[in-house]
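I have been asked to look over a protein record a colleague put together. This is what I was given:
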Amino acid sequence: MTAAALAAPTFAALGEPSRLRIVELLRAGPRAVGDIADALGLRQPQVSKHLRVLGEAGLVRVEPVARRRVYRLEQQRFAEIGDWLESFEALWETRLDALGALLESGAADAPAHPVPPTRPTQES
């Protein structure tokens, strides 16, 4: 999956605080819609809408169990997010290593652009 295809719907879904709270709750294990609503203090229709968005983003999946709809996190999607984030980690490690080397060399002590001396002011 391309980064753009992964990032847009995934982070749009996670960007809403209630949906992020639902994901955090589901980290502990599968839950029915009513259990999620009770745990978060939300109405069931609100939770169902949030779960629909999370499902469309591939973050959760639903399993009918008797008369209940039980939701669980979609592990593959979170693995893809982890892989995507790791690509940025490597980029930042390289940049921070270069900054560390610069700081250790003392080159950071010299100003990049010398500051011109200030003129003395004349007192009246």
In short: Residues 75-105 form the longest helix (31 residues). The chain has five helices and three strands. The chain has a mean pLDDT of 85. The two ends are 73 Å apart (CA to CA).
